[in-house]
């Protein structure tokens, strides 16, 4: 029986039918794939056109900072220009990259949020004095635009970030030494220079650049806080600090970075589609290139990424009203879970791989922006105390003489919590990311502050 069946199976008539059936199946599969690709592309382009009418731009050129004249450009400083004018790992490049790197280990702490002073360490400050003086002079240039190859998208090299953070650390070390010796003018200048150094990154539309900007701010908050709790700053110095803090808008930097992240993802999609290049690991995990499988769901993934970032995340950043809607970031996480649990979830694989984890980024931005807002209010409070002999009963008493507008809480309209304590100190705090009043206390998990829980108070000095 088997022999008879085998002969029947390999007969010319049956073989012809089998191959015709296979051909029809392949043709139908190709037609279905092409139809889905066309539908996905049509859906993406229609959605994109709708938002372009509203003024939204989705190309990488729209997020690239304009070029500036060299003589006005901080990036052309002798310390940073070699990072972009010379090949990576050339002697000149390596010298510029490592110029401000402190090789010796230190026990330096930046624990101002816990109300702790720094551990001071011996370092060769004289070795860097000339460089810091030149950097301070370079910071007088009004613009900063590093010669980054933005057209490389995510592959763009950013060698200046670690060097800038190292230089800012040196300003912070110098300010610490000066403040401990009673040189408040020198400490004040060094602290402002450290902050201004970080602010050279304010227009750089990369998430990592904005995170380095935040790290530099956190480093330089320490000296400001120490001088404030020890009542070492003059009214003039406090005014300069206050004006500096009020000029910094991390929400605007966050908004531009997320928009740039989205547009660089679009740039990547366009490059892959036009040049036919491999997906550099993102879809290799699916054992495919954009030759077939990604083309199947290519535009659907691009649509999902753009939709989530444009319709959910960006509206959650209210720059004009100085608010951050935490629920929008949580909604993004829910959207991603929905994609993972949807029918044929692998069709969203590119979107799930490329969408950044923005909840932690939002937490980092908001905790530092809250610190900036509190720092400005505290400077105004100290100026009030110097003029009146005590702190005001209410923050409203600071206006308009000591501050034009009091920053509110980032997360709601009720404002920051403020009260005078029995020892004539004050309590000032935001109810934080969780939106609940926890009586002005940080939530400490182990040795670290968990900013997702508890309140965000302006710290008082604690015993060492």
Overview of the molecule:
With about 475 residues, this protein is mainly alpha-helical. Among the domains are: about 1-55; about 60-205, no CATH class. About 55% of the residues lie in helices and about 5% in strands. The chain has 14 helices and 7 strands. The strands form 3 sheets. The protein has a 3-stranded antiparallel beta sheet, with helices on one face. Mean pLDDT is about 85; it is low at about 275-295.
Task: Pick out its properties.
mainly alpha, 464 residues, two-stranded antiparallel ribbon, 7 strands, three-stranded antiparallel sheet, globular
Strand composition percent: 5-15%
Order of helix and strand elements from N to C terminus? HHHHHHHHHHHEEHHHEEEEE
> Order of strands across the biggest sheet?
3-4-7
**From the helix content, strand content and strand pairing, which structural class follows?**
mainly alpha
Q: What best-fitting shape do the alpha-carbon axes yield?
A: globular
Rg, Cα atoms, Å = 28 Å
Helix content: 40-55%
Number of strands: 7
Q: Stretches where pLDDT falls below 50 for ≥5 residues?
A: 277-293
Mean of the pLDDT scores?
85
